Amino acid sequence: GENVGLHLPTLSVQEGDNSIINCAYSNSASDYFIWYKQESGKGPQFIIDIRSNMDKRQGQRVTVLLNKTVKHLSLQIAATQPGDSAVYFCAENMGGSARQLTFGSGTQLTVLP
Amino acid sequence: DAEITQSPRHKITETGRQVTLACHQTWNHNNMFWYRQDLGHGLRLIHYSYGVQDTNKGEVSDGYSVSRSNTEDLPLTLESAASSQTSVYFCASSSNGETQYFGPGTRLLVL
Known about the structure:
Chain A has strands spanning 4-5, 10-14, 19-25, 32-38, 45-51, 56-58, 62-67, 72-77, 86-93, 101-103, 107-112. By secondary structure, chain A is mainly beta. Chain B has no helices and 11 strands.
C-alpha cells in the first residue's frame, strides 16, 4: 500500500515555543487525514483531522495544514507545553468505501524546560 | 462515558500457547480494528471487522484470528504464540470509517 512518512523522527523545542511536525503522503486519492498523539504507555489519541477540500483547520492550540500540491501535511502546536511531549503521527484514509487508515511511523516531540 | 477497553493490559505467555486478547467498545461502532505496534514499523493492521459476523485480514494477519459475534467485542486470538508476536497490541473502533479511536493497548511478551 501507499506509505505515509514523516520528515523528522525527533523534534526538540523549548517550552513556550511553537512546534511544527511534518508528514508526507504519497496517495493522491487520500481525502481525509488525521493527526494522533501517543504518550508513553498509552494508546494513540485523536488530535485533529482535515478533509482534502480544506487547506487549514484549527483546534485548541493546534493547526493542521494540508498542501495537496506537494502532498504534505503539517501539525502546528502553539505555545508548546511539557504535556505535549509525545509521539505524533499522521494517518490517511484513501476515501470512497475505504474505511482503513494508513499510519506514518511517528515523530517524537520533546519539550525542553 | 462511552469508551474502548482492552484486557489484559499486560500478558506473558510461552511459545506455542493460545492467547486471546479482548477488546470491548461501548460506542456502538460498526468498525473495529486490531493493530500491532513495534519499533521501526509503526502501527500495522492485523484484522478488522465492519460489522457482526464480518472479519477481514490485514497486512500482518498470519498467526492471528478474530471473531465478531456482537457489535461491542472483537477478540484477537494468537493460535500458537511465537516470539515474533511479542508486541504492543491496540484495538480501535470507528463509526464512519474515518476517525479511529484507540484502546489503551496490551503488552504481550512471548517467551
